[in-house]
User: Fold this.
Amino acid sequence: MKNNRIKKIFPFKGLIIAVSLLCILVIFLGIQLRNYSKGVKVQVARANTHTVWIVADQILFTKEYDTRITKDNFTEKVAEKLGAGFSIDQISITLSDDGKSVTYVSYVKDGIACETLDGEDILCGNY
Assistant:
């Protein structure tokens, strides 16, 4: 007798479960989209034939563009750390969502190619 009463109150049990799961999914996706668009800033720097993308501390590379940009201002700032006699290959400056500046440079100096992140050499080798 209790089963009949429950069936009369909830005749579409499967539909209720499906709608509940759909609501949970919509809420989850809404939270993810809000976190994504909350202020992660992305900047693109194009140098020579490389485009360097930095998205919240992750460095991604593409080689689809061949644009010449003026690197004078950036070169002056980096020259203090690297010294004279280098050529910049790839550059990018970006702000992560916590407001900290992240700088990636790939350069060649005295025949040695190096990659640096915030002034720290992360990879160097013969050119």
User: Anything to note?
Assistant: Residues 42 and 58 are 10 Å apart (CA to CA). The radius of gyration is 26 Å. Residues 42-126 form one domain. Strands lie at 42-47, 50-55, 58-62, 86-95, 101-109, 112-117, 120-126.
